[in-house]
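Encode chain A's predicted structure.
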Amino acid sequence: MNRKDPAGYYDLLGVPHTAPVTEIKSAFRQKAKDLHPDKNSSPDAVRQFQHLSEAYEVLSNPDTRARYDTLYVQIPKSKTAPHHQEAPEPIVCSCCKKVTAQPRYIIFFQVTSCIILTFRTPIQGIFCPKCAESKAIESTVTTWLLGWWGLPWGLFYSVSTIFQNLFGGSKPNEVNAHLLTYQAWVFATQNKFELARAVAADAQDFARKIKKADNRKVLDSIEELLYNLDTKTPPKRLKNVWSIPNQAFCVQGSMLITAVSLFVASSVVYIQAEAHQTNPIVPPTQSDARPLSSPKPEYVRPIAADNGVPFPFISSYIDGYLIQATGGYSNVIIDNSQNSSDVFVKLFSLDADPPTPVRVFFIRADEKFTIEDIKAGNYDIRYRDLDSGALARTDPFDLREIETLEGIEFSEVTLTLYEVYGGNMRMHSISENEF
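Encoded structure for chain A:
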């Protein structure tokens, strides 16, 4: 049996495992006609048709297909040290077929429309960074050209898809945790222990984002692998080749800026023309000159950070802000999983006078975000609840790095945010000026 098709779904439909969903749908329709019990006289017709329907149900949904595509990527169960195991086959990019140290399973989308019909098609697979950039640009260009021309969903799906592709597509946490753990195991069997530890640390980052009970199971597997590879020093982290901005972000961003600029310019021209036609000049009256007191405006949830950059669709750093206080070993985990509101968060360095934000990021409701490689010092967290507008800060905390004979001991702090200020650190209300 093909290890990449463990249940034989692709083989049953007669398509390759890289087939787009349109090809899968077409193959299912043809096979369904041939295997339907009304037409198929075989005594096994019902079972065959049910198996075909099961294959289509799994492969036509991008999330279930992602899990199926990586079933062959099994986290090793053996207690034997990695370098004593038989070398497994490494994961390769779905497009260029090259081995990469940092593969990702990514789901992009492209939208095509025709008057009243709109189709949102997933483009998914295991990609290296270069091929992922090409797929993102290709999907976005298709959406710009063909996505708008359908009512009522063409515009809505096109906008959401363009922004999702702009920020790197969807990377399922559980799938990528398994994927990277397996790749780390491959490198360990090749005696590339430092590379294996670095890739396993990336897998650990994905595993910590998993919301299900499987989180602990995946983390245990990764920690067991790291234990077998332990060299008594912290693992060196790989350069994040998936960070934004990258080439795909710049290309897609330039398309977006061009489109927005054209829209704004045409809107201004139209409004000015309408104003000249409908608003005659009227001399001011005495009542017009009387100043009016206006009530304090109600809070309206912002769509962008205070530097004007729109909030991302995923929990991440916000573009336009410098990432400072780097070069350290300490990590701070911000846990927003108990909060039903997105938050706009800043890590302030209290060693500066006045206190200065050194990391600025966005966390979606029910998710966590890890600030990594922070240098030693005094800090606090300040954040805005984007649903209510409330501002708060934590108590100050100290990140330390201590050199010992065994290496460097460093801090790892977890802060929990709640809708009602609380969590594992006391929260204090702050003013706009302090934020």
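The chain has three domains: 9-60, 86-239+247-252, 316-429.
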